Amino acid sequence: MTLDRLANIALLAFVSFPGPAPAQKAQPTASSATYTVNLDVVVQTKSGSLVPNLSQQDFTAVDNKKARPIESFAVMTPAQIPVHVIVFMDAVNTDFNKMAYVRGEVDRFLRAREGQLADPTAVAILEDKGPEMADRYSTNGNEVADSLDHFTIGLREITRNSSWGASDRLQISLNAFHQLLNYAATVPGRKIVLWISPGWPLLSGPRVDLDWKQQQGIFDDIVNISTQMRKADVTLYDLNPLGAGEPMLRADYYQDFLKGVSKPQQVQIGDLGLQVLAVHSGGLALESNSDVAGMIARCLADVHSWYAISFDSPVSGEPNEYHNIAVRVGEKGLVVRTRDGYYANPQAITPR
């Protein structure tokens, strides 16, 4: 199947997805003159150690290249706001044999430290038939690991190596992600989603020439996903379990799509890549490392301590106006991660 055909099939999934969940964060103030933007900000040294002792004066919030006064500031820990962790194992886009290794690594992480987890955690798995999730969260890692034993990965109905298989896997993956975001909007507090996968098939191959209708449909879905993640307070992490066996060209390909898109004419299918969405949410895309248990621990270090920052931005009358966000700290040599953009006045537009 050609990549153009893949784009057409992907578009069918985009336009049928549900809209954003009810607003929880970053919504217009009562005066409707400004838009309050809430951010979870992680600050680390270059070696990866958290920096939890900064003050409000150390931060500058920038919205579309303009500095905005910080309206609220707090140093946060899970003791102050609930944090829920979802370990999401992708059996659709991961080789069957590799999935056995992934399950073993997830089990190893859950049972470490005598099974004591810092945050309520649940496991989920994505199969050809769709996502399946454990029915409750627990800080007892042994209990969560036992629930993992109840998941049975059936025979695949989709062939991973065929073009039709790629389009089907793409549609299953995006539908599952929307379902996950809708569910996350019902869970209190901050949500950390650890999606263990080499990525979705839409990032392979060269750029695709899209017509106007395809571009508009993909752009609408980018706006929807960005808005859903922000309102549900979801930070997404992609953990690639293929390790050193992953071709470096494919592993790094997502970086071509990290610039936010402000209009339909700019979109490519790669703008909806799993790695791209993870980085845009303030999370990580971890590649070329087969230590899945170690990658999980690295990601969850982000929620030991972080900064909650808000600022006000003028409300735009234009639909889907993209705002690039940057948060800077005065001290040199520190790494700052947070959500890198949002769409003001998000509205889906029906293609002509």
Describe this structure in words.
- With 352 residues, the protein is α/β, with parallel strands linked by helices.
- The protein folds into 2 domains: 240 residues, von Willebrand factor, type A domain (Rossmann fold, 3-Layer(aba) Sandwich), CATH 3.40.50.410; 75 residues, no CATH class.
- It is built from 8 helices and 15 strands.
- The strands form 3 sheets. Strands 5, 6, 7, 8, 9, 10 and 11 form a 7-stranded mixed beta sheet that branches.
- Helix 1 packs parallel to helix 4 and helix 2 crosses helix 8.
- The longest helix has 22 residues.
- The radius of gyration is 20 Å and the shape is globular.
- The two termini are 26 Å apart.
- The N terminus is likely disordered.
What's the average pLDDT? Answer: 84
Helix content: 25-40%
User: What is the CATH top level name of the largest domain?
Assistant: Alpha Beta
Secondary structure class reads: alpha/beta
Which sheet architecture does the biggest sheet show? 7 strands, mixed
The total count of helices amounts to: 8
Considering the protein shown, what is the CATH homologous superfamily of the largest domain?
von Willebrand factor, type A domain
CATH fold name of the largest domain: Rossmann fold
Any guess at the CATH architecture of the largest domain? 3-Layer(aba) Sandwich
The structural domain count equals 2
Q: Bin the strand percentage.
A: 25-35%
Supply Rg: 20 Å
Sketch the topology as an H/E string, one letter per element: HEEEEEHEEEHHEHEHHEHEEEE
